């Protein structure tokens, strides 16, 4: 057997065996040693196994990736010479040579052999340029393709990952968390995904347009399955639908179905969220609801419809009844929490004819010491003024006109108009003393709301509120003001709770601002508007009283909504729960006139409540436990 080097030098086998270490070192010099074959394998005994073959190692001709896994050989007496590829792994395992010698010109056969026998695949194209940054790394940059184990793992990971499934998971997250579709276009978000999954390519990440198309396709794909599931309903399919407005002021109507299937499993499914284009009359809403009903083939199974108490919903039910042939008054169920919403807003803001007489309520809670409380309150204000004079650091913070000018510079008429349009009981656009006094007819909650409006438009007022908290409660965390919203009365109750918790800080802030105004001349036309929102001691008593009144309403709203929680809250607004709760709330309002009210017992084992309220509470929390 002969050995032919890349330079064409021929040596006898005995000379090769004697000088093999020197020749192999010279032959491998141009190659990447990390990927070169180990030619020291070719001892005399190994060469005798390949009788008639000679080694034809030539680095310049061995640039394909599969040459790093095999030897280059030819037959000694073959003309013209046809180069063979000999698998190094098989040669070392002493397998029959006919099974691992391939023609080098037929690369597909030897590549298939590497994949089938050794789980080796083609590595990615590499160069000598610096590797990608950490946030752009790829799986191919991590795997060592000269290692059979890592190569096999790479193959399995590549086959397991499916970009289509990844897109569905992203869509599920976007829709469930109510995120904007444009989130997926954020380069920082895409960079995080690429970093966490090196097997993911940039072009495999979806854009917002792809997700929108995918959402529509998934909705259409699921319609047949949902239609079949609705067909298994044991009885009627009940509906709840209500309007919803997006942050871009687009109006939709959400339509949900509730039913029990043949296996006695309760289902709640969102059937559709069609957009309302044009007028939003009851007839328009009915048209959208009917289109969904017919699309899912449940016209003959429609049961009761639970809606809020908006006036146009009567028209909606009448239109549905005309097509579906049922009694609209019988099938229309009013939303219990929305009924509580209307009642509480009427109490707080005097809307309608049943506003609360707060004078009687405050008197009932005990007003004999009110004059004494007022004196204490103003003594507190006086003490705060004295402290202000001694606090040089705080005085420096209010030493200029910036705070007084802040309302003019930041709270522009246009900005205030945009904010005040979002409330159901809007404050005046022209924030003058006269308009504020007119708005304050709605009581102390109107003043608290106006404080929130001014806080939203003035960063320096917020800073003054924070400074007052640090003076009154040094070392305690600073809490932000809670501004009430438009649709839920619970936000009013939460705003009142925060105001009561920070009552001392709010009084200190008002005093600080008034002190600064007096130092600058106390001109009436320059009086800060926020001073018109100062609550009197009697206002604070009203806020405290109304919060005690609203507390049972808040818990009742939670008890009469949703599907309940096993082991925690099992109520869900059934008729046997609805009527006892409403009766207890009516009794609660009547008892409030006498200064008695219900408190929620969060831990019955740790807290004791007056015997007078025990029956109220037990019936209210669990109607079945009433005596």
TrEMBL record:
It is found in: Nucleus. GO terms for molecular function: zinc ion binding. Transmembrane segments: none annotated. GO terms for cellular component: nucleus. It comes from the Eukaryota. This is BED-type domain-containing protein. InterPro entries: RNaseH-like_sf (IPR012337), ZnF_BED_domain_contain (IPR052035). Keywords: Metal-binding, Nucleus, Zinc, Zinc-finger.
